[in-house]
């Protein structure tokens, strides 16, 4: 009897904790998301009156060259970034996990870019790309960096990519190191007895064992790169000639200041769907691979 | 390199010196931008010639005047205060809210369908990018008079909730329920049991959550940028953005300001490096 009474008290406490938490979450996450969906069906400019336009925003999205351009830029950036970051990080993790001196110092140093804010780092690299790199280009006669790459329609995205990769490698490396530490030493000893080379040992033994970490890293890196914003703001501000407008940047720029509140809301909905599909796809891919092994 | 690694099986593997040297050389990629920043920050504009040496050669004379000027121009102490206020409040409230919510989920999910549903509802928020919430939130916070530090804190708490509640809920599996039952028999309330027994046991998780929240909020640009725009309230990163026009081409002033924006987080990192790397790895893998 006594115990039963206590348990209902426990249930009450649980409900008293959960209800405000869920309300808070609904108020600042679900509710604005629903409002975003609704704005997507209007021609709202961010102020004044608006009309319902049905699916017109969505139809217009597919014919708007600036939208296509931003998706093309963002995906190009995310795909190149994800590949670069994961290859570099895996190499870094193997090196930092090997038998080396000053291991914790080196790990500590290579992690620094992750803790620094993207905006300030962007400003610092912007100076490097605008003044230092062209000076070096003139000294060594490398024509494509003789002018600032950030003011070139062709190469500006590479500048953003360099900064993005510089920061992201730090975090991804740490996750790969944790992955490598889960591989027991006796597995390697067995392969040494078999006389397997380092390269073969990596592909046959290490890599399959850290596949779950590869999955985690691919999801995390792709998502972070798709949402690129800070570096764009400080490096190019979307330019030159709108060539480096990421999806998030375009939503911010035109949605809040460009009078396209409704239109960019529809864009944000599409972006949201893309992110969800991608996460689901990558997660199922990696879990399938794990099963096969 | 191969030979040194394939050392005799019985003895300890030898130190790979070549790799060590390569890794030390590689740290230039990290140190160079920081060196450049600090170097330009302590130089005077007259020393900034138009070649590489202008930016990279060490200054002839050390001067802290750029820092003093940057502090004045960017209203440094105010921005620092706002950044600290927002980050510290978010961490404290976040750890309290996430841990107790995670605790309730951890204890109810397995047996109660309602809580299980609520759990998936909250955790699925992880997929929601800020971009879709941004525009409606600008309207909503303005209507609720939350276009200020409090609004930003609330948004952070909600935005990091899915991830951190999941971390705490899964951590509850490590804490046997028997500990709580003993406390009930002694007549303690559920809340008191949580606070006295469970909360202290979650300590490793608190560190992870606090560190991830700290890095996320301290460096965030988008939320304060859109929520507090036009209010004149700056965080440290936002101040760098808003004072770009004042910096103009005075790079020495700008870089002094960037240096000061980087110093707090670098100090924090130097002091708690182990916990930060451990916490971040812990959080990302789960």
From TrEMBL, chain A:
GO CC, alphabetical: plasma membrane
Superkingdom of source: Bacteria
Record's keyword terms, sorted: Cell membrane, Membrane, Transmembrane, Transmembrane helix, Transport
Name of a matching Pfam family: BPD_transp_1
GO biological process: transmembrane transport
Protein's UniProt keywords contain Transmembrane helix: yes
Domain ABC transmembrane type-1: 71-282
Transmembrane segments: 12-34, 75-96, 108-135, 155-180, 201-220, 261-281
PANTHER family named in the record: ABC TRANSPORTER PERMEASE PROTEIN (PTHR30193), INNER MEMBRANE ABC TRANSPORTER PERMEASE PROTEIN YCJO (PTHR30193:SF37)
Annotated family: Belongs to the binding-protein-dependent transport system permease family.
Name this protein carries in UniProt: Sugar ABC transporter permease
Origin species: Ileibacterium valens
Lineage of the species this protein comes from: Bacteria, Bacillati, Bacillota, Erysipelotrichia, Erysipelotrichales
């Amino acid at each position: 009897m006594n115990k039963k009474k206590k348990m209902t008290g426990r249930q009450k406490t649980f409900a008293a904790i959960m209800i405000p938490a869920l309300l808070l979450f609904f108020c600042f996450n679900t509710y604005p998301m629903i409002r975003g969906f609704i704005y997507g069906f209007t021609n709202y400019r961010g102020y004044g009156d608006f009309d319902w336009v049905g699916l017109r925003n969505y139809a217009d999205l597919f014919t708007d060259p600036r939208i296509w351009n931003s998706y093309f830029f963002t995906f190009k950036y995310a795909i190149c970034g994800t590949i670069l970051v994961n290859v570099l990080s895996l190499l870094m993790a193997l090196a930092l996990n090997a038998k080396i001196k000053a291991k914790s110092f080196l790990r500590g140093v290579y992690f620094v870019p992750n803790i620094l804010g993207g905006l300030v780092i962007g400003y610092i690299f912007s100076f490097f790309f605008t003044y230092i790199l062209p000076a070096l280009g003139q000294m060594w006669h490398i024509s494509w960096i003789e002018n600032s790459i950030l003011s070139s329609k062709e190469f500006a995205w590479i500048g953003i990519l360099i900064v993005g990769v510089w920061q992201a490698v730090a975090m991804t490396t740490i996750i790969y190191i944790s992955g490598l530490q889960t591989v027991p030493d006796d597995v390697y000893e067995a392969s040494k007895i078999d006389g397997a080379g380092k390269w073969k040992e990596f592909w046959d033994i290490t890599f399959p064992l850290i596949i779950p970490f590869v999955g985690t890293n691919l999801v995390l890196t792709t998502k972070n790169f798709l949402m690129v914003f800070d570096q764009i703001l400080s490096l190019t501000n979307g330019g030159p000639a709108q060539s480096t407008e990421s999806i998030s940047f375009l939503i911010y720029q035109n949605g809040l200041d460009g009078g396209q509140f409704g239109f960019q809301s529809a864009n944000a909905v599409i972006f949201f769907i893309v992110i969800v599909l991608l996460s689901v796809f990558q997660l199922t891919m990696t879990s399938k691979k794990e099963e096969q092994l | 390199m191969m030979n040194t690694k394939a050392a005799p099986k019985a003895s300890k593997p030898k130190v790979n010196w070549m790799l060590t040297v390569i890794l030390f050389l590689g740290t230039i990629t990290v140190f160079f931008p920081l060196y450049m920043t600090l170097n330009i920050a302590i130089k005077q504009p007259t020393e900034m010639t138009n070649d590489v040496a202008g930016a990279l050669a060490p200054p002839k004379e050390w001067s802290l005047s750029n820092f003093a000027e940057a502090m004045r121009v960017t209203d440094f102490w105010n921005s620092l205060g706002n950044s600290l206020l927002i980050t510290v409040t978010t961490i404290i409230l976040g750890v309290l809210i996430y841990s107790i919510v995670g605790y309730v989920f951890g204890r109810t999910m397995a047996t109660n369908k309602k809580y299980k549903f609520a759990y998936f509802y909250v955790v699925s928020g992880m997929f929601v990018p800020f971009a879709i919430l941004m525009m409606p939130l600008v309207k909503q916070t303005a209507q609720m008079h939350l276009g200020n530090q409090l609004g930003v804190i609330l948004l952070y708490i909600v935005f990091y909730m899915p991830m951190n509640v999941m971390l705490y809920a899964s951590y509850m599996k490590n804490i046997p329920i028997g500990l709580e039952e003993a406390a009930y028999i002694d007549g303690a309330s559920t809340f008191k049991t949580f606070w006295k027994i469970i909360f202290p046991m979650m300590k490793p998780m608190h560190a992870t959550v606090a560190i991830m929240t700290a890095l996320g909020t301290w460096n965030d640009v988008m939320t304060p940028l859109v929520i507090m725009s036009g209010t004149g309230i700056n965080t440290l990163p936002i101040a760098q953005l808003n004072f770009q026009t004042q910096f103009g081409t005075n790079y020495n002033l700008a870089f002094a300001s960037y240096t000061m924006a980087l110093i707090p987080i670098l100090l924090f990192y130097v002091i708690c490096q182990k916990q930060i790397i451990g916490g971040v790895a812990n959080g990302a893998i789960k």
